[in-house]
Design brief:
Length: 204
Amino acid sequence: MATASAMTGHQQLPRRPASCSNSKQNRASKSKPPVVIAHECPSAMRAHVVEVPAGRDVLSCVSAFARRGRRGALVLGAAGHVTDVVLREPALVLRGTMEILSLAGCFFPFPGPGSAAATGTAVFLAGPRGSVLGGGVALGGLVAAGPVVVMVATFVAAALDRLPLAKGQEAGKAQQGCDVHGHHRACSWAAVCRKQQQQLGANS
């Protein structure tokens, strides 16, 4: 019985499997050597876990760590207990041992708004009965009551852009003071909580 190819006079060629070209490409890609990055980018951010011992100021230790490596430091968080915390605005001294809930700030390797002299670090602390209090921390006002672990991201390539000051900004800064005599006021957690409750009641 004649086949269809014999009747038409054409010879039927065997088909190549479709997977042959793919297998060759896979073998070619596997034979290529891997690309290995031997050097780390100097401007890349690095993560560090800094442990501050008891009795040392947390901000001063982080600032010294950044200056020693000539890098900027971005504080992402912290865990531990501190004592006698000094807040800048309003100027308060919180007596007693408190747990750190959140810590954030930035230290630049060059003199500027985020340097150790004018840090913008803010902290939130856990007080008794579930109360939370925090604000901007003065340098030297965050003493570790025990080992405090700080999560820090360091960087090198940071560009400083000085923007023009808005009208009335200097006058607003001059009106913000620590105290009538320029000193910090010492208070307890109970007094601070009562003051906050009075302010909330007056606003409501």
